[in-house]
Model the fold of this input.
Amino acid sequence: MERKAKGLENDNLPTLRRGDQSNAVTLLQQQLATAGFALNLTSHGHFDISTAVAVADFQASRGLSVDGICGPHTWTALQEAGWTLGDRNLMNTKPMLRGDDVAELQLRLGSLGFDAGRVDGIFGPNTASALQEFQLNSGLTANAICTKNTVISLKRISARVSPTTVAVVRERVKLQRTPHKLTNKHIMVVFSKTLAAVAGELCSSLRRAEAVVNEMCDLSELESADQANILKVDVCLDLRIADTKECRIAYFATEGFVSPGGQRLADILEQRLSATLGFEGTGLQGMRLPILRHTRMTAVQCLIGPFGLIQARLSPVARAIEGSLALWTTKPT
Done:
């Protein structure tokens, strides 16, 4: 049996925040230190300000929402950060293997022209296929299992990893070949109840433009991503409310892969929503949020607020989003 990364099992670990004191906090502090995030502790096992700062810094480095609270997504990221390529055999399993070792494998394969798909750190069918193709070309046993021998061969050939992978090129070409209009474009809109009115008006406008629309209310990011993948939508748009004055638009980006469609759509949304809300946005962010990482299509998350402002400008906000999607379809990359 393979070990868990650094002994971490996140299924039953609690959400931790400043002021907590427990063995789980000790484990968190150990994991942060192992990941290279320095702590100036007042005491081990106490979630002090140093721990909160280290958690926030780790979250920022992993493309997560930064709040200094260690919840399920942060625990998962800590677990994945504990793996380096060669620590374990990698193969297509259920559930799929995840970790920084998988991401490095995808990056190295993609930089050599073997399309492992997005560099998302999830070992799925695309990664298995690219690995097997590499093994065939390298005279290795072509079993789609990444063993130490495969890692040695891969590192020898890809001593210098390209900053981008072939998956970026192929995704851009795929988008350019799609019809450049809203008609029949399959769009999933994810939203919380607080944004139901905006989402409702937006979806009505999209349907009038003859787009195919699915609405998902109050699902988790992972649940939303699963639904988007099952439905095979063209675009997944996640609308979130911010407590403060904010307009942050996020798209999927990690080392070796930036979603070309997501980045383009996010850029249009940021410009139009900022103008509609009447203040300069907090900018575009390439992130690895679950809704962006787990979807297999163009996906963008819009964090806008506060609620009172959105309510006051409900129709203009909906029109700005619909207009952004319409413009994006004419030039998706």
Q: What stands out?
A: Residues 1-7 have pLDDT under 50 and may be disordered.
